[in-house]
Amino acid sequence: MTYQEIAYESHVSPVAVFDLIKRCKKQLLSYESKLNLHKINIERLKCYKKIKDKKIKQQLLKIDNIYK
Q1: Residue 67 pLDDT class (50, 70, 90 cuts)
Q2: Sign of the CA dihedral 22, 23, 29, 32?
Q3: Coil/strand/helix, residue 2
Q4: Judging by beta carbons within 10 Å of its beta carbon (0-12, 13-18, 19+), is residue 17 exposed, middle or buried?
Q5: 6 to each of 9, 14, 23, how far by Cα in Å?
Q6: What is this structure's pTM?
Q7: Residue 7 in contact with residue 1, Cβ under 8 Å?
Q8: What one-character-per-residue DSSP string does 4-68 give?
Q9: pLDDT (tens digit, 9 = 90+) per residue, 2-53?
């Protein structure tokens, strides 16, 4: 959705939508810098690629999907 569409649905101005999205993005980046979830996920996927046993790999991916 565009800022205008969100603003219309939310009964606020497009500028208010833009500002809120900007603040949310800043907060999410702050969380990510502290938690490193993206980096951890990339490392986990690299480890999965190294697993030769397809059955074990499938089981790990299944477990991983449960916790996402």
Answers
A1: low
A2: negative
A3: coil
A4: buried
A5: 5, 8, 16
A6: 0.61
A7: no
A8: HHHHHHHTS-HHHHHHHHHHHHHHHHHHHHHH-HHHHHHHHHHHHHH---HHHHHHHHHHHHHT-
A9: 999 999 999 999 999 999 999 999 999 999 999 999 999 899 889 988 999 9
- Integer CA distances (angstroms), 50 to 3, 20, 39, 45, 68, in order: 43, 41, 17, 9, 21
Instruction: Find where tokens 């999205």 sit.
Output: 21
**Calpha distance 57→33 (Å, rounded):** 29
Residue with tokens 């999965």: 48
Instruction: Dig out the tokens for 61 from the structure.
Output: 């991916």
